[in-house]
Amino acid sequence: MESAQDYWTAHALLEWQVEMGADEAILDAPMNRYELVDEKPAAKVSPLGKAAPPPIPVKEKVDPVEIAKAAAKSAETLESLAGAMRAFEHCELKKGARNFVFGDGAANANVMIIGEAPNRDDDQHGKPFAGPVGELFDKMVGAIGLSRSHPDPASSVYVTTVLPWRPPANRVPEAAELAMMLPFLTRHIELVDPAIIVLMGNSPCQALLGKAGISRLRGQWTTFLGKPVLPLAHPEQLMKNPTAKRDAWADLLDLKARLSNP
Q1: In degrees to the nearest 10, what's the CA dihedral of 140, 144, 147, 150?
Q2: Which of 21, 73, 195, 213 fits a disulfide with 110 by CB distance 3.0 to 4.6 angstroms?
Q3: Contact yes or no for 130/236 (Cβ under 8 A)
Q4: CATH fold of 64-260
């Protein structure tokens, strides 16, 4: 049995330890804290006493152009390219368009003609150069012996549009829209592999050549993907400005001469 002196001695030592800041008893055996399981931190509590909502996850930014490049590169046929373009979900024009507009004419034609974005008639029929604009287009190419229905590649044309979906109210395509769809258009040209490319209108020139102003660019030959390119007025422009038909006819004759003497 401990004596009173031992008790008071121990009591005095304990008080001294408390005064010195000792507030935790030491275990008889050492503790391996690496084996302890970390407890989940308690949820933050708002000043009103309610648990704070979890943080909103940040969506990873995507680059539509890079996605379009990968999708276009994987297409080995016109059919698979059309499927890749239909599946592309990053162009908002898709949501407002009635139909997907891809191409028309002979896929092995020597001449590939790229027009403006689809208009209302194109959107309704699901093909480029439809309606009254299409009728004038057929007369224009027919005047130099070409047709989108002719089986001979030397006498046929293949037509498409710079975008596969109609912009609302036929507005001019935005630069971002042209940029994200350019990889598909470039692959379209590679798969058709024409001898000559004709760009009808401002938007095709802006997308492929980085230039606009068809009145200034028309009739001036240039190149894209190593192929001869001829900018030419769009039929819709000619319907609004008939005086431009003389220049368009001169450009068509120039195209005919180029085809006769490649």
Answers
A1: 170
A2: 195
A3: no
A4: Uracil-DNA Glycosylase, subunit E (3.40.470)
- What is the reported pLDDT for 9? 72
At 38, is the pLDDT very low, low, confident or very high (cuts 50, 70, 90)? low
Indicate if the pLDDT at residue 249 is higher than 70. yes
Question: Higher model confidence: residue 38 or residue 159?
Answer: 159
**Of 178, 180, 188, 253, whose CA–CA distance to 225 is shortest?**
188
Q: Round the average pLDDT of the chain to a whole number and report it.
A: 89
Share of the chain above pLDDT 90, in %: 75
Q: What is the mean pLDDT of residues 104-117?
A: 97
Strand 157-161 versus strand 222-224 pairing type: unpaired
Q: Which residue has the tokens 């109609």?
A: 166
Residue 46, C-beta contacts closer than 8 angstroms, at least 6 positions apart: 52
CB burial class (10 A; 0-12, 13-18, 19+) of residue 217?
buried
Spatial neighbors of 74 by CB under 8 A, at least 6 apart, are: 80, 84
H/E element, 252: helix 245-260
What one-letter code names the amino acid at 250? A
